[in-house]
Design brief:
Helix content: 25-40%
Number of domains: 3
Strand content: 15-25%
CATH topology of the largest domain: UDP-N-acetylmuramoyl-L-alanine:D-glutamate ligase
Protein name: UDP-N-acetylmuramoylalanine--D-glutamate ligase
Radius of gyration: 23 Å
Largest sheet: 9 strands, mixed
Low-confidence stretches: none
Enzyme class: ligase
Domain Mur ligase C-terminal: 309-422
Keywords: ATP-binding, Cell cycle, Cell division, Cell shape, Cell wall biogenesis/degradation, Cytoplasm, Ligase, Nucleotide-binding, Peptidoglycan synthesis
Domain Mur ligase central: 109-287
Mean pLDDT: 93
Structural class: alpha/beta
Length: 445
């Protein structure tokens, strides 16, 4: 019998993980990357005798595919992907490919913001009592973990791009943290397309599965009310009393699932801010579903260290706190950051604008922001939006300079916040690179 041919577009973490899993399961594998493949991934492919190419797509070889796994970074509008779809070749994501080779319990977490923190927090709680892997948009690829570890449980952080390539993927527990306009450039600038993409997380769920979601999010509520969702719903809320799900009652999170109730005090939760109370609700609800002991959940929430580049306290210099929130790549994430500021703030913002509407930030600018530093190649929209609202607004294209300007502007008791509300690709490799450069510049002051 002829081997099925698996073609992988993109030789990064998810591509190479899929190649290894595909080969182990009897596929003939070919990896093709339009750019350069990193040396560490090249070595893995060579060592495992997997055929690969870089800086080109050889169409003859690609069109021999029975199935194609594309990296989430490649848009569906790319010519080669369109051609494959027109030919009727299934083009799927790594999550879709790998899930068929595991019987593990899967917790899948998506949302515009909070998904990394919620995924890491959920994994942190579960790993105290369960055999659990953390994958998806984070850490080692899911496919590679399925091959090498075969965990009994997985927490997967999943982006809309990964969900776009899912057909049969069916998590036991799905979480949607929130939905706000983001990545609209990939969705024909239609918010509805992006919303539908997020809800693919629950498309194959049955009433034996669970959908945990933010009941304070109008976009999510509207979609659930207008669409037939089969999963058992477990909402969480800061403002409403919830019968089945989680809610906040003064300083306690109350979680009820099938009349089984647990109460978690919020006062010692390591992560501060309203949005983190929500992340803690989502993680605790998952843990309660998977029968983690209440004591374990409580202790885990109290000792969780947080996520790098997300409201990360870097240093205090001359009584000024420097905060790295480079992971805030959209307006809603920056909204949470500014909302949690309790002192006058020098705000570093800017990058590649994804069709941002800055209006929801105006109240915070008036109330908390004393100066704005625009760090981007094109800052016109920022200058137009905020120019009249603060006394000091300056532009730069260098992180070191941005931090030096902030140092001059900030006085004892102030905060300096990097929360860009934009993508990083104009001046940096990615948001991690941007955050690391910020931390380095602060340490060099």
């Amino acid at each position: 019998m002829k081997k099925q041919k698996l073609v992988i577009l993109g030789g990064g973490e998810s591509g190479v993980g899929t190649a290894l899993l595909g080969k182990a399961n009897g596929y003939a594998v070919f990896v093709s990357d339009k750019g350069k493949i990193k040396e560490k991934y090249k070595q893995v492919l060579i060592h495992n005798e997997i055929e690969w190419e870089e800086e080109q797509h050889t169409e003859d070889k690609i069109f021999e595919a029975d199935i194609v796994m594309k990296s989430p970074g490649i848009p569906e509008k790319v010519a080669i992907v369109k051609a494959l779809i027109d030919k009727g070749v299934p083009v799927i994501s790594e999550i879709e490919f790998a899930c068929q080779f595991t019987d593990a319990t899967i917790v899948a977490i998506t949302g515009s913001n909070g998904k990394t923190t919620t995924s890491m927090l959920t994994h942190h709680v579960l790993k105290q009592e369960l055999d659990v892997g953390l994958a998806g948009n984070i850490g080692d690829s899911f496919a590679k973990q399925v091959l090498e570890h075969n965990y009994k449980n997985y927490v997967l952080e999943i982006s809309s791009f990964q969900l776009d390539g899912c057909i049969n993927f069916k998590p036991n527990i799905a979480v949607i943290t929130n939905i706000v306009p983001d990545h609209l450039d990939r969705y024909d600038y239609k918010f509805d397309n992006y919303i539908a993409s997020k809800f693919k997380i629950t498309q194959n769920q049955t009433k034996e599965d669970y959908l945990i979601y933010d009941a304070d999010d109008e976009v999510i509520l509207q979609y659930i009310n207008n669409n037939n969702i089969q999963a058992t719903l477990l909402p969480f809320s800061l403002t409403k009393t919830i019968e089945n799900g989680a809610y906040l009652d003064q300083d306690n999170i109350i979680i009820t699932i099938d009349n089984n109730q647990i109460i978690m005090p919020t006062k010692n939760i390591a992560l501060e801010g309203k949005h983190n109370t929500k992340n803690a609700m989502a993680a605790s609800t998952v843990a309660h579903l998977l029968q983690i002991r209440k004591q374990t959940i409580r202790e885990s929430l109290e000792n969780f260290q947080g996520v790098e580049h997300r409201l990360e306290n870097v240093l205090k210099i001359n009584k000024v706190q420097y905060i790295n929130d480079s992971k805030a790549t959209n307006v809603n994430a920056t909204y949470f950051a500014l909302d949690s500021m309790e002192s006058p703030t020098v705000w570093i913002v800017g990058g590649v604008d994804k069709g941002n509407n800055y209006q929801e930030l105006y109240p915070f600018i008036n109330e908390k922001v004393k100066a704005i530093i625009c760090l981007g190649v094109d800052n016109e929209k920022l200058l137009a939006s905020f120019g009249k609202m603060v006394d000091v607004i300056v532009e730069t294209q260098f992180m070191s300079e941005a931090v030096k300007i902030a140092y001059k502007l900030a006085e004892a008791g102030d905060s300096v916040l990097l929360s860009p509300a934009c993508a990083s690709f104009d001046l940096f490799e990615n948001y991690e690179d941007r955050g690391r450069q910020f931390k380095e510049a602060v340490r060099n002051l």
